[in-house]
Write a structure and sequence with these properties.
The complex is a heterodimer of chains A (about 160) and B (about 325).
Chain A lengths: L1 H25 L2 E15 L2 E7 L9 E10 L5 E9 L4 E3 L8 E3 L13 E3 L5 E3 L7 E9 L4 E10 L1
Antiparallel strand pairs in A: 1-2, 1-3, 3-10, 4-9, 5-10, 6-9, 7-8
Chain B lengths: L1 H22 L14 E4 L2 E6 L2 E6 L3 E4 L2 E3 L1 E5 L5 E3 L4 E9 L7 E6 L10 E7 L13 E3 L13 E9 L9 E10 L9 E2 L9 E3 L5 E10 L2 E12 L12 E12 L2 E10 L4 E3 L5 E2 L2 E2 L9 E3 L3 E10 L3 E10 L1
Classes of the chains: A alpha+beta (about 160), B mainly beta (about 325).
């Protein structure tokens, strides 16, 4: 009985200590993901976009996936590349991501949408479309200590 | 602070578990991802710090796709179904345009504005053997108020509505019967949420169709009307036409059938007038002799009267029966 209590206490202690050590030593970068629903509400006869917590989500809904980053360390990091696979049930929304590169082949090759092609089931190549995008990534050359920001993309539930 | 730290540990564990789930394909439907599918998003970052590099993964945000309630009903009876002596079978299709399996409540409304008559709805039947044809006694009859079996997302179900003509309908009148399908979970203005009632454990949300759809099928009444005319010619034994005892009266009964349909079970029945006697062997149908006995031919005659069974006659035809009596 005594042993069990001790074990529980150890776990608790680990919970307190481990992340602090990880964040400061091993992980100077913090990434925090968030998703919001871009909902159109009609107010006084005018359509208005509001960003809400996605409590109810159905096909066709517009979602905004955001990843907040922060350099929590004391030294600058470079070649900071954030990669985000697009979830299977989501298609990249139209006309987005001017700052990002995308991939339509699971992250093997990267570029702008207009540069990319997809091989169809019949073997013929065609221009890639938003719905073909499998990954999106952002590259920041330098991230100073304390620097932070948010990278986001818009998606539509397929 | 404590809370934040512990939650970070929890979410990092989640991220590792769900990285694989991100790549798992969601069942693809023309009408959208299946209800209950988890949409999970995880970002990761690589960076260089001094001489070494590092990798960090974000927490995973996870959303469950809720069930969208949508339906489309189509009338499949392209040329009006003919209702006459027998019932008409109207065909409809119910398509689940939502993203989860859903049952639908069906209502057949025979009172559509503009109808020449309102048909009598006998039953709503599901094409349960899936052969596309109404099989009486085989296909499942829906009890009043009952729902169809669940239809898969993107799936269709063929439904038959069996109707008969009401009394008072006349030949050539047209009518429509409206079939409405309502999602069993519920209907309402688009966006209405039925919490916790979605397939896969999420909510159910009314889609753009209001989770209700209807379509009309056409039918036309095809009936036959029988008119009977009786005439008599008297031939007396003196070469004249006086109704004196011993004179023979030739009765002619003409059944004229009009309309586009058929008249079934038509009999021409007449009694021998008082004061006269039937002349045996004089019964004819369309100038062909009939025996007096009740046998294989269509007619029979006796001292009390005649009965000719015309069976089923199509509109536009005429049947003539004659028989002779002698005035006592």
């Amino acid at each position: 009985m005594k042993k069990i209590i001790l074990t529980a206490a150890t776990v608790l202690l680990a919970t307190f200590v481990a992340p602090v050590a990880a964040a400061q030593a091993a992980q100077p970068i913090e990434l925090k993901g968030q998703v919001q629903l871009d909902k159109i509400v009609v107010e006084n006869g005018h359509e208005k976009h509001v960003l809400v917590e996605p409590k109810v989500v159905v096909p066709g809904d517009k979602l905004i996936f955001a990843t907040a980053y922060r350099n929590t360390g004391s030294v600058a990091v470079s070649n900071f590349v954030v990669t985000n696979p697009i979830p299977a049930g989501v298609a990249l929304a139209q006309g987005e991501t001017p700052m990002a590169e995308i991939s339509v082949d699971g992250g093997k090759t990267w570029g702008k949408l207009v540069q990319l092609t997809v091989t169809g089931p019949d073997g013929a190549k065609r221009a890639a479309q938003n719905s073909d995008v499998t990954h999106i990534r952002w590259t920041l050359a330098q991230l100073a200590p304390g620097a932070s920001g948010t990278l986001s993309y818009r998606g539509v539930v397929r | 602070m404590t809370k934040q730290l512990s939650s970070r540990v929890a979410t990092r564990t989640l991220a590792l578990v769900s990285l694989g789930a991100v790549l798992a394909p969601a069942a693809a439907h023309a009408t959208g991802v299946s209800a209950g599918t988890l949409i999970q998003n995880t970002a990761s970052a690589t960076y260089t710090s001094g001489a070494s590099g590092g990798t960090v993964t974000s927490n995973t945000v996870s959303i469950k796709v809720d069930e969208l309630l949508n339906v489309a009903v189509a009338g499949l009876t392209t040329t009006p179904a003919i209702a006459g002596q027998t019932s008409a079978v109207l065909e409809y299709s119910i398509t689940n345009t939502g993203n989860g399996p859903e049952a639908f409540k069906l209502t057949a409304d025979p009172a559509v504005p503009g109808n020449g008559f309102d048909a009598t709805v006998q039953s709503i039947v599901v094409d349960s053997n899936g052969n596309g044809v109404y099989d009486a006694g085989v296909d499942q009859v829906l009890a009043p108020g009952a729902s169809t079996p669940a239809i898969a997302a993107d799936g269709s179900l063929k439904v038959f509505v069996i109707v008969s003509l009401p009394s008072g309908a006349t030949d050539g009148q047209t009518s429509q019967v409206k079939l409405t399908a309502d999602a069993a979970t519920g209907t309402g203005t688009p966006g209405t949420v039925f919490a916790g009632q979605g397939d896969g454990g999420g909510d159910a949300v009314v889609g753009s169709t209001g989770a209700s759809s209807n379509a009309n099928d056409n039918l036309i009444a095809s009936l036959a009307t029988v008119a009977l005319a009786k005439s008599a010619v008297i031939n007396d034994q003196f070469g004249g036409h006086q109704p004196v005892p011993g004179a023979v009266v030739i009765y002619t009964l003409t059944a004229s059938v009009s309309g586009t349909g058929q008249a079934a079970g038509v009999h021409i029945i007449d009694v021998i007038p008082t004061g006269t006697t039937y002349e045996p062997g004089t019964l004819t149908l369309n100038a062909a002799a009939l025996t007096d006995a009740n046998d294989v031919d269509a007619g029979q005659a006796s001292s009390s009267g005649v009965d000719v069974n015309l069976g089923t006659i199509s509109g536009g035809s005429t049947k003539t029966v004659t028989f002779n009596v002698k005035i006592n």
